[in-house]
């Protein structure tokens, strides 16, 4: 297991809100973190509908207008904030790939693991 990678401090995240990250320096956001109240979850930045299509149409635009769902702007799919399950759109029955996080007592958010070397 690789060392945890610091991503962000909770104070820097809007609530509700989302932010993309490039933890391995590949040149684009490969994952994103969603904050909703005290809940913080991380997902691969890839819609399950079609290959590795990025979710956001612009930097950090991962949520719908009221912050209640994750949205793939390429396919109009909508996903649950907690489970990542598709609730509407072309990929019903599929889910986003969740990534492991740790939030310490100081509010620092760390990526813990990577699947196949890329989050």
From TrEMBL:
Entry keyword annotation includes Hydrolase: no
Domain Rieske: 5-91
UniProt-listed PROSITE patterns: RIESKE
One Pfam entry name: Rieske
Molecular function per GO: 2 iron, 2 sulfur cluster binding; metal ion binding
Organism: Pandoraea anapnoica
Protein known as: Rieske (2Fe-2S) protein
InterPro entries noted in UniProt: Rieske_2Fe-2S, Rieske_2Fe-2S_sf
Keywords from the UniProt entry: 2Fe-2S, Iron, Iron-sulfur, Metal-binding
């Amino acid at each position: 297991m690789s060392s945890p990678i610091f991503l962000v401090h909770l104070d820097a995240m809007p609530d509700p809100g989302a932010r993309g990250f490039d933890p391995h320096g590949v040149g684009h956001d490969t994952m994103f973190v969603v904050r909703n109240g005290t809940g913080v979850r991380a997902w691969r930045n890839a819609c399950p509908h079609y290959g590795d299509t990025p979710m956001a149409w612009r930097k950090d635009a991962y949520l719908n207008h009221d912050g209640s769902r994750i949205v793939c702007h390429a396919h109009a799919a909508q996903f649950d904030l907690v489970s990542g399950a598709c609730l509407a759109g072309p990929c019903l029955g599929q889910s986003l790939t969740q990534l492991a996080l740790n939030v310490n007592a100081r509010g620092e958010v760390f990526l813990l693991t990577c699947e196949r070397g890329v989050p």
